[in-house]
Amino acid sequence: MAQHDYDIANGTGAAVRTDINNVLDAVVSNNSGSNSPGTTFSYQQWADTTAGLLKIRNGANNAWVTVGTLDAANLGLATLASPNLSGNPTAPTPSSGDNDTSIATTAFVKTLVDSAVATAVGNLTDAMMPQGSVVQVVNVKYNTLNQTTSGSHVGSGLTGSITPSNSANKILVLVNVNTQSTSSSFSAVGVTIYRGSGLAGNLSGTNLAAGDVYASFAHANSAVGSNSSSDQSVSASHLDSPNSTSSVAYTVAFRRTDGSGTPRINGRDAYSTMTLMEIKG
Prior knowledge:
By secondary structure, the chain is mainly β. It has helices spanning 13-28, 106-122, and strands at residues 45-48, 53-57, 64-69, 134-142, 146-147, 154-162, 170-181, 187-195, 206-207, 213-217, 232-240, 248-256, 263-265, 272-279. Strands 4, 5, 7, 11, 13 and 14 form a six-stranded antiparallel β-sheet that branches. A hairpin with a 6-residue loop joins strand 2 and strand 3.
């Protein structure tokens, strides 16, 4: 280990030669020592034996910059060919849309993926979706009492509407209707789905079912409000083809199927639901 102020003092031949040898020792040992050299120069090297690091003086000659690790292959630095990195190596982030051999950082990849997802979702058209995909869903909840003594279908307040995005798409109609009958003998409530609208006798449109879905009551209670055994839920579904891109309304209709009794929907504070799903055709 050797350091020097790099100033050859005047002296006898032997003294000057010793001073020159000391300078050369400092040069060949990279000014090695446990402390930094007392005299420093811009870009001067120092082998810091305390920290085990090779350092170089910065251009302003006011600080040391670490170059690498002493006694380590390649000073512990990554090689140009097939470097084996560890920890959390970083690199400059290429500009968006870069398409060359630049290293793609996680920031670059995340920005690219976020942009691609936003573009795909924002610009996803009906034509891009596979057949059978759900395009949109409308759900309706209804809890108002409706009743009738009519043997013909009357519209209920359970109605919903949906606007198809493509005339080739279908609408899956799913209903779950709470029914009752105020009859002391066997009776049944007929429930169906209409494409159309209208309450009571103003029901209009097309009956989507070939027949009614029945809720039968073998021991229905004339005092409906006090006997939960008179409640029955009726579920029905229909895959409709309205061939339209205008708003399409669907209504649950019901009727009395026997000679007596009063069919009801949503008695005893119950509720019914309708779900409309647009399906890619």
